[in-house]
Amino acid sequence: MADHIIPHFQNDAGVPVIEVGAKEFMCIGARPPFDHPHVFCDMGDDTEIICEYCSTLFRYDPKLDPHEARPPECAWTEPKAA
Asked: Which Pfam families did the record assign (predicted)?
């Protein structure tokens, strides 16, 4: 399966702020099967956005790759098929 074109981030750790390298992404809440409906977040000209579903604050950091997050475990990639 191809990598996500739009980065996906999750917050299993329950951290108050996740720094991300993308201004457009999907928040999935927690890792499946405990994820919330996948919410498209678009910061536009801003540098922060709050997920309307789980209230996680995402902060843009241009030093990060678009698929990277801080803390790093908040970047989600779909598991590879066996």
From this structure: zf-CHCC
Whole-number Cα distances in Å, 14 to 29, 44, 56, 73, 82: 9, 25, 8, 11, 29
Per the structure, the count of domains in the chain is 1
Whether 81 maps to a domain, the answer reads: no
Asked if residue 39 belongs to a domain, the reply is: yes
Stated pTM of the model: 0.90
- What is d(CA 7, CA 20) in angstroms, rounded to the nearest whole number? 9
- What is the gyration radius of the CA atoms in the chain, in angstroms? 12
The CATH code of the domain that includes 29 is 2.60.260.40
For residue 1, name the pLDDT band (cuts at 50, 70, 90): very low
